[in-house]
Amino acid sequence: MGGYIAKRVGQAILVIWLAYTAVFLAVQALPNDPVTIFLSTDAAADPATIAQMKAYYGYDQPLILQYLSQLAGLLRGDFGYSLSAGAEVTSRIGDVIGSTLVLAGSAFVVAVVLAVALVAAASLARGARLRKALLNLPPLFISIPVFWLGLVLLQVLAVQLGVMSLFPDGSFLSLAVPILVLAIHLSAPIAQVLLKSVQEVNAQPFVDVLRAKGAGESWIFFRHTLKNAAPAALSIAGITIGTLLAGSVITETVFARAGLGQLVLQAVTVQDIPLVQGLVLLTAAAFTLVNLLVDLIHPQLDPRIINANAGPPRALAA
Amino acid sequence: MRPPRLALKATALIAALGLSLTACGGNSTGAEAGTSQGVAGEPVQGGSFVFAEVTPINNWQTQAARFYEKANVLHSVLDRLTYFDVESGQLVGWIATDFTSNEDKTEYTFTIRDGVTFSNGTALDAAAVKANLDALGLGIEEAQIQPNVDFSAYESAEVVGDNQVKVTLKRPDANFLRATSSVAAGLVAPETLELDNAGQSAIAQIVGSGPFVFESEKPDEEVVFAAREDYAWAPETAANQGAPYLDELVIKYLPEVAHRAGAAQSGQVDLVRGLQPVDEDALSAGGGQVLAAQGVDLTANQAAVRIGSGKLEDVKVRQALQVGIDRQALKDTVLSDSYVISGSVLNRQAPGFVDLSDELAYDPETSKKLLDEAGWVEGADGIREKDGEKLEITVASSNNSVVIKPAFELIEQQWREIGVKLVNRAADNAFLTNALVDDQIEFFGTRQFAYGGLGPVYGPANNTQTLNADAELNDLFTREQAATTDEEHLKLIEEEQRELVLDKALTLVLWDEVQVYGAHQDAHIEFTSGTAPIFQGAWKSNG
């Protein structure tokens, strides 16, 4: 197990370093440096000013030196200076990251609860029509665009009925509605994978054995089926962090919330290179970290993952 | 496995519901149309005024205030030496009670108003003004703050007597005085000028002498300003000469364009910028106000011509394109009644404006004739060509205007009829960043702050528009900037417009710059010549 963890952590660091290097190289392909881009928003910048500022921020150095000094800066926690924001990249990100963590974290939890509830309801539903209707919800959820649902809900709740604010004002609804909008979209892939996995587990003989022993349907579902079906859903939940970040760009814009999504949009719009680099690095780190966590939890749920020579698949809990 | 019908039905139902709600959102209160208007009645004291800007910003450094998002707020935080009064078309006193220049327009003397203080208690005296002028004219190297582009002629300033500041310029500049009215020339406390770049960019640390004072901030969501009770130095012509009527000003952000009309109508905001033309009718039908702030300080929205690719080198081609634009159709289809078609490159209310509307009338037949004369003949696909090269030209612009992309889409159709293909890269910021300095990209769609004449925008030192496509014009702009009397200055500005728009056709003018705001029915607000809301004079009927 120790070797497994070390290997996974090492891979995670490698992925982050490669992501940073790739972004650094990609940015060099742009025709202009951060100082020129920043000053080009003004009517006309004096070449002497550009040269002086480039020297100050080190953009006049040879590429390899820029790369190494930026990398050294990263290790010290210095992500560079964002000219468009007039602030250190770390402080700019620090200003808004909390808001995104609250939104994305809550949305993730709600999405998982929603997905499990949906799958449980669909699996345990008695009527065929009700079951059919529930089975159709995930495809529906994933086909509703996040921005559209957000716009409609705000139009109804904030503009027509006036029960919530168009702005994040700290009220319950102004936090719950964006979380729900994001969670609905996010729950769909988790529910779909979980459902498929539950159906596979249900087809296994041990379920019939349990049933023959007289176990109730919900006891079988929660104590056996769900446990066996969970690993697949966990993997997909790890991947959804990408969806979560993309979703927060939209959710934060629609709900006028501060956050990383909005910041990405601003940074890309004004081509603030250090800010973009910092955000890409953060995203890569978040992605890697979550998947590392998934990799570390997986063996707890399914020991076969480490013990690769365990032979043919077998049910865990029968 | 998946019966599609139910899902389909449910989706369709939700979609229909949502669409109908969105569609009727604008006019549900059914109040009478177009009840607006500004400042009628006796001002009501007190209240909190919520203004929603388009995008959150973080960098509030004064000289970087060339974006509306910053200027609209900083106008109420930072006072300037002078103020441009749109009604009289005159520059009037503000922090400077008097301003004079020598014959050559190389020396300007400002008399500083007595008793003005910054919100931290420091006096706004001649020494503070000198410190600000030095920062504007020379930049602050230690803080990586570049000089203000409108101050390119600045050499030095000295305090004269008790309360005067004398500015010396490197060369005559007839437009210098007007530039002191710009928000980007806002006066900050000397303590602010001592801060590093991050300090001078932070709204919490920018100390001004204006009618509103920073109180609190939630990054990217909200900035709150409190009214300054002892404010008593408004511009000479301001209706309100004292403290703001409002108690508090709250800046919020509505990046989602679809919410702006609803926000103003429902009263969740008192004022919002960036209303789309399609939302204007719904808002006024719903009892809200549609307020068009004319950008007198700015050039018209234009496609500035670059001739590096050679396709537009012949003036006949440029003139053909100028009259190949049906501006009325532009207004009728893409814009709205809030927009005024350009009569020149300057705003209709700007000093020296010459009305060239007749010469700019839509005339596709003349266009075709001019293009024929220039040797561009129609190819098999309807696009003209010459020496095997197609008349295919590209426009780049930022995404700052909500209407710029659809406007160029319509022009693309109009030009197709005269055999010209336009590649529309409007509203593509990434493309623009590089196109800005590339004379191979034929058009730069833009509007610029033009304080005074056209020299500061098109003159050889600052020309990011046409990139100095014409040497003769450079001479004209230089002469305009060096004009020593008002008559001569205005005459040269007129000449510049004829040359730029007609004789050389180096800019294709479209519509006068305007910022369309949505306001709640109870809000009373007016705007500066730079389209900034004047919160100091604003009030709410319901307090």
Model regions low in confidence, pLDDT < 50 over at least 5 residues of chain B: 1-39
Order of helices and strands of chain A: HHHHEEHHHHHHHHH
Shape of chain B: globular
Q: CATH topology of the largest domain in chain A, which one?
A: MetI-like fold
CATH architecture of the largest domain in chain A: Orthogonal Bundle
Strand order of the largest sheet of chain B: 8-9-10-1-11-21-12
* Secondary structure: number of strands of chain A: 2
Note the beta-strand portion of chain A.
Answer: under 5%
Q: What is the CATH superfamily classification of the largest domain in chain A? A: MetI-like
What oligomeric assembly is this protein in? Answer: heterodimer
Name the average pLDDT of chain B.
Answer: 89
User: What is the C-level CATH assignment of the largest domain in chain B?
Assistant: Alpha Beta
End-to-end span of chain B in angstroms?
61 Å
C-alpha Rg of chain B, in Å?
25 Å
Largest sheet of chain B: 7 strands, mixed
Question: How is the largest sheet of chain A built, in terms of strand order?
Answer: 1-2
Count of folded domains of chain A: 2
How many β-strand runs of chain B? 23
CATH architecture label of the largest domain in chain B: Roll
Low-confidence sequence ranges of chain A: 309-318
Tell me the number of helical segments of chain A per DSSP (H or I, 4 or more residues long): 13
